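Hi there, hope your week has been kind to you so far. Would you mind checking whether the tokens look sensible for this chain? I owe you a coffee for this, so here goes:
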Amino acid sequence: MKQVFVEADRELQEISQLTGGRAYFPQNAKEFDRAHAKIAQLIRHEYNLAFAPTSHDGLVHSIDVKANHSSYQVDHRRAYLAPN
């Protein structure tokens, strides 16, 4: 049964990386409080950017996002599916 949870955690981690999110796995109340505080901080300082894809080919295209300031951490999707 433990292997099922290990695999589920790995898949959740992979999904969060692909979509620009984060996954937290607190083991106790103190870790939960730290994760909650971090999430609250991220939400307060969140920016959303959007773009209109130029390709309408129904294919997956990669995305590379960079910040010119070294103290910024950029979380973003790694790819998108273009419309047909």
The helical segments are 2-19, 29-44. Strands lie at 60-62, 79-81. The first strand starts at residue 60 and ends at 62.
